[in-house]
Design brief:
Length: about 240
């Protein structure tokens, strides 16, 4: 089953056409990576998926409903690049506050904090956390409502390698339990951790693939190299 269907999506931001007509589907219960260089349109696409981006034309369907439908609010979680937690509350207070909005209790809040590896900092004010910790506090607040679709904009930026691996394990744990995750990144070494890959460049979909297929198409075990080979092959065809 597909959790997300995007058909002929066109988005302009300012006077620029950022997404010139995207079509793809995202399977449910998997981790789909949205990979592409800075400025390729990843955030714009994620905003369209959660229904906060004005779109010029096209259709975005999430869990069978138009993106942004009121009944999707509880079912879709979105973590932006800028952590969206209250700086003057502790991590625990933030998580419990968001839990209460979803009708959840302290137990779920504490579990979400533990999931992102912040149990030791639960009593600390968010204002006193490092950038990476703040990002994880934000993630905990999105996890607390157990959304069916989780859209995460560069969730591992600034994290040390051990935490990154732990978070990716957590993502796969969530997917195994049925959650659909869409995770953006601009570092190709994270591409290998995804079940599926959407590769964006200048708002266009260069590949809708799996890591194994991309390696085969790009004739390289190294995903970055494989990606470059696929990009160059496309450019030669276009020239
Ligand atoms: N509010 C805005 N008004 C006009 N143009 C914008 C606006 N926000 C983004 N853009 C442009 O849209 C394009 C895509 O931006 P977007 O943030 O979606 O890219 P991205 O792939 O998420 O980049 P990054 O990895 O750096 O976050 C960029 O060229 C950017 O300059």
């Amino acid at each position: 089953m597909d959790a997300v269907t995007v058909t002929d999506l066109v988005v302009d931001r300012g006077r620029r056409r950022v997404l010139p007509g995207l079509s793809f589907t995202v399977p449910a219960g998997q981790v789909t990576g949205l990979l592409g260089p800075s400025g390729s349109g990843k955030t714009t696409l994620m905003r369209a998926l959660v229904g906060v981006q004005q779109v010029r034309s096209g259709r975005v369907t999430v869990l069978g409903r138009p993106a942004g439908s009121p009944d999707l609010r509880r079912r879709v979680g979105y973590v932006t690049q800028a952590p969206s937690v209250y700086a003057d509350l502790t991590v625990r207070e933030n998580a419990r506050y968001f839990a209460s909005l979803y009708g959840m209790g302290a137990r779920e809040a504490d579990a979400a904090i533990a999931d992102v590896g912040l149990a030791g900092a639960a009593g600390q004010l968010v204002a006193d956390l490092s950038g990476g910790q703040r990002g994880r506090a934000s993630l905990a607040c999105a996890l607390v409502g157990s959304p069916e679709v989780l859209v995460l904009d560069e969730p591992t930026v600034g994290l040390d390698p051990v935490l990154r691996v732990e978070l990716w394990e957590r993502f796969h744990g969530l997917a195994a339990a049925g959650t659909t995750l869409i995770v953006s990144s601009h570092v190709m070494d994270e591409a290998g951790r995804c079940d599926r890959l959407l590769l964006l460049r200048d708002g266009e979909l260069i590949a809708d693939s799996t890591p194994a297929q991309l390696r085969a198409d790009g004739h390289s075990e190294d995903l970055e190299e494989a990606f470059l080979t696929v990009v160059r092959a496309r450019e030669e065809v276009a020239a």
